[in-house]
Amino acid sequence: MRNKLLIILILLIGLCTLNSCKDKKGQEEVSNIDSNQVCIELTDGRKINLELYPNVAPISVNNFLKLVDQHYYDGVVFHRIIDGFMIQAGGYYMSEDGRTIMQKEPQATIKGEFSSNGVENNIKHVAGVLSMARANNPDSGSAQFFICSDDAPHLDGNYAAFGKVLDNASLQVVKEIAASPKVYVDGSLSDFPYPVITIKTIERI
After folding, report:
1. How many CB atoms lie under 10 A from the CB of residue 146?
2. Is the pLDDT assigned to residue 59 strictly greater than 80?
3. First-to-last CA distance in the chain?
4. Model pTM greater than 0.90?
5. Rounded to whole angstroms, what are the CA distances from 13 to 27, 159, 197?
């Protein structure tokens, strides 16, 4: 009886040790996985939490995260907002005196990951979806992005959606920005929010 108890005790200790090793290994594996979530923090303290979808739009996600890690977006402003549609950023920042809108240095363009450009992408442009901004050329996207404040089905299949807000609080911030007062600056900045809305930083979470 005593020997049986001793054997059971040894087996239990071994099992606990094995499970402990598995737990530690699992934690290490999780910590080594790149985060697919980011947080846009504005200078006024508001935040927009986003989840990215590399399995759908890997080129767009990798490009965006590369710029995030390089702090490219620190200090950029939302330069185009349309209530009931979307908010756009990634191309402009304000001069140090706060009087001049400056253009960010251009970045390399990437392939547009959407169906009309030969790439399968089933993400619909519903409220909260993150997508790449571009010019007429389907492969002209680079650093500028937009977040839909409302459903925009006319964009489906023609723009590279690659993420979405994580929570209702983030979507509320997007809607607040879209409804902000705006001014006409020039032909390329006809829907500029004023007061200026600046991104403090975008970081992985």
Report:
1. 26
2. yes
3. 54
4. no
5. 21, 57, 58
Helix or strand or coil: residue 179? coil
- Looking at every residue in the chain, the average pLDDT score rounds to 88
Taking CA 137 as the corner, what is the angle to CA 61 and CA 204, rounded to the nearest 5 degrees? Answer: 15
For 6-30, what is the mean pLDDT? 38
**CA separation, residue 178 to residues 103, 150, 193 (Å):** 21, 10, 9
At 75, the pLDDT band (50, 70, 90 cuts) reads very high
pLDDT digits (tens, 9 = 90+) for 98-126: 999 999 999 999 999 999 999 999 999 99
Backbone angles phi, psi at 101, to 5 degrees: -85, 120
Section 32-51 average pLDDT:
88
What are 40's two structure tokens?
């846009």
Residue 162, judged by CB atoms within 10 A of its CB (0-12, 13-18, 19+), counts as: buried
CA 60 to CA 47: how far, in whole Å?
Answer: 22
Beta bridge mates, 130: 147, 163
CB atoms under 10 Å from CB of 179, counted, come to 15
Q: Give the C-alpha separation, 135 to 149, whole Å.
A: 20
State the pairing for strand pair 47-52/182-183.
unpaired
> Cα–Cα–Cα angle for 97, 98, 100, nearest 5°?
100
